[in-house]
């Protein structure tokens, strides 16, 4: 079957009417990849990675954005706007263009990864860099979209959460059941809210007989949900979760408590180590924020939480190419220079032996 995108495939679960344009860049249907090496070391029964970096703009944001933009188009809007740490703006810019709408994005100045910025610019969005952080940018976007004819497409737009819940449906369909634990990074907390809604909806419709425990992970320098209060100046290398006052705070707490799960924090060092392990051991290149899910599962493994039987799904929210600077910076000095001669390369590689 040719994949039709999430609006068509999951139409019965989404706010799709006869008037909704079936917009698509063929988002969704992302791989659920079984771990080859980490699963044994962590002492879980089975470990899967849902690689959301395989969505058309390279992050899970496409699932919610396709619904938000289709509904904006249906409602006759011509301009959409969002605040973004990067991936939302890349996705909004792409889908807005696809739908023939124009797009304005507000980004925190100097805090946005190069890959994401290049996407928003290439798709022709109007990009404003706010001299402040993400929370400042979102406050301004809320004001403008409340007072002017501009559609808000941040995850406080309910259509975003509706679209994002389809990832939970895919996990259930591909696993033919729910995992014991679903682990994911948490920033603005829209995604953890969306997954929990998706699992509950499949449960209520009799598509599954169980529910997973939701394990959310924030970065230590940006963990308001762990501290129980907003963080004034959030700091982390994982820019996609550098958020001090999550918009979906209540949704995250409900997902944690209703599922019997947890929300914990991991350090930047743990995040970067998990990112490297995914790349070196599993062949999966993700951006730093995405690695927070595995970093969190590694932390829980050290704490002795697992019994060797659990099925764990880690959500890898965005592609590694989004943030090439961090990847290159971590590998500084690793490129070896060599003269353009065959013997020089043979010698450098230590191949030795007889000359052919
Ligand atoms: C947006 C984003 C997150 C955080 O998702 P929230 O819904 O804001 O919690 C995590 N990882 C990546 C790559 C993202 O783009």
UniProtKB/TrEMBL annotation:
Entry EC no(s): 4.2.3.1
GO molecular function, one term: threonine synthase activity
Residue ranges annotated for the Tryptophan synthase beta chain-like PALP domain, each copy included: 24-318
Enzyme class: lyase
Residues spanning the membrane: none
One Pfam entry name: PALP
One BP term from GO: isoleucine biosynthetic process
Catalytic activity: O-phospho-L-homoserine + H2O = L-threonine + phosphate
CDD domains, per the entry: Thr-synth_1
Domain of life of the organism encoding this protein: Bacteria
Function: Catalyzes the gamma-elimination of phosphate from L-phosphohomoserine and the beta-addition of water to produce L-threonine.
Protein name stated in the entry: Threonine synthase
Naturally occurring in which organism (per UniProt): Candidatus Caldatribacterium saccharofermentans
